[in-house]
Each structure stands twice: as C-alpha cells, then as structure tokens.
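Quick review question:
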C-alpha cells in the first residue's frame, strides 16, 4: 500500500518506522479478556465505557508524560475505565511492548494494543487482549483480522470513512473504531463519527476515537451512536483518575 503522497509527513514517518521494526519470530497465543463483553457490561451498569489510553507523547501532542505506565493504568481503572489502551509505537509515541506487558499483568480489565500493525508478524510483538488494526494501512485486512483472532486477540478495526467501514465489515470486523482524526492532515472533526456511524449495522460494537475532550463530547458521540470512547490526550493531560471518572459518568 503506497499512500505516501496523501498522508501527513508525520504519518509517513510512522509507517516507515513500523515497516522497519523486526518481529520476534515467536507466535503469541492469548487467553484474552473480551473488550466487547467489557463494553457491554459497562453499558448495562449505566456507565459510559471509556477505553483510557496511555500515550506518553504523539506527533500532535506537546511534550512528554513519563509517569510509570502501571501507575497510570491503575489510576484509570480506579476512575472507572472499562479498558486500557497502551501505545506500543516507540519512535513517535514513546510507547513500548514492555509497558503493555507490565500494565496487563497489573490490572484485570482488557488491554488494547495501539500501534501501526501492518503485517501478521507484527501481531507477535506482544500479547494483548485486543489489537488496533487501521483499515487504511493494511493490504489484507480480512487476513489480519483472522490472524489476530487465531492468536486469541480481539481486533478493533479503525476506519475514517464509510468506504473504509464497508471494507472493515467485509473483513469480518465486529468491533469497529471510527477515528475523528483525518490521518491525511492530522485534523480532528467530531462530525466524522456522526457521518459514518449511521452506516454501522446492528451487532457491531462502535468505538469513537480521537478529539474527545470532555463530557460534552462524550454525550455528542453517544448521541451519534458510539458504544464506547477511546480517550488519550484529554486523560493524559491532567489527573487521569479524576478525568476518567468524569468521562465515565457523562
């Protein structure tokens, strides 16, 4: 897949780095905690499912937060997070597979690996309960969805448009994230979820991603049809426990 002429330079750099990364050569097998079931249980309990993200830095964030990832995850769970997302991309986001492993061992909620997974071998970098697959950056999406499931991981397939949503559904995705951030320009528009969500069929769990800054945004995304929220920057910017609690109660 060659989209280098249409992607922001920062994204081009991230993809090149992902393609250079070596894989361990050992196939992982995971006894996973279900992210979909955790989302459903949170909804049944009358709370908003929040996937709180540990994101030390990013190309769209100023500065770096170098708190212990385990302490951050525990604070997020104490605030009511349904699941934890851990960035494992090292060069642009300050993440690591070691951080994910430590977090997963320390908490009892599902842990999502967020990275730029481009090939089946990339799945074997670390055991996670769920793994993000970005439809735009994968050549064989159906193959990668199946490969993730074969390892016990639940694929969260990220899309940004209705055409990408159609590709995700054709690939067998039952857990879909709609990214409000346009990776061509790195601009955020919450209207993206509002535009794409009506095409999500019943039986598919929908996660709203990016640009969710507070309770008002959470309510807007829920009105649009989102079942859960993936929130990184807004939580990492301050008191992670208090901010997570505020979003969960929205």
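Suggested answer, residue by residue:
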């Amino acid at each position: 897949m060659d989209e280098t002429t249409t992607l922001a330079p920062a994204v081009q750099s991230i993809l090149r780095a992902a393609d250079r990364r070596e894989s361990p050569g050992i196939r992982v097998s995971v006894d996973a905690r279900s992210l979909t079931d955790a989302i459903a249980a949170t909804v049944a309990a009358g709370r908003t499912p929040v996937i709180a993200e540990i994101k030390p830095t990013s190309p769209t964030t100023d500065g770096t937060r170098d708190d212990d990832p385990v302490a951050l995850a525990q604070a997020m769970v104490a605030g009511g997070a349904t699941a934890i997302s851990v960035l494992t991309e090292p060069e642009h986001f300050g993440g690591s597979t070691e951080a994910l492993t430590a977090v997963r061992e320390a908490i009892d909620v599902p842990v999502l690996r967020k990275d730029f997974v481009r090939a089946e071998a990339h799945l074997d970098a670390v055991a996670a309960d769920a793994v993000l697959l970005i439809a735009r950056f994968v050549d064989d999406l159906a193959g990668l969805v199946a490969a993730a499931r074969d390892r016990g991981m639940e694929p969260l397939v990220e899309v940004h448009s209705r055409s990408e949503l159609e590709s995700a559904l054709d690939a067998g995705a039952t857990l879909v994230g709609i990214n409000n951030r346009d990776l061509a320009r790195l601009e955020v528009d919450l209207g993206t979820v509002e535009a794409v969500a009506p095409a999500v069929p019943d039986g598919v769990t929908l996660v709203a991603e990016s640009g969710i800054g507070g309770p008002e945004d959470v309510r807007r995304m829920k009105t649009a049809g989102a079942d859960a929220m993936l929130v990184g920057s807004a939580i990492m910017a301050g008191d992670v426990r208090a901010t997570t609690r505020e979003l969960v109660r929205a």
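Why it works: Residues 114 and 187 are 19 Å apart (CA to CA). The chain has one domain: 9-248.
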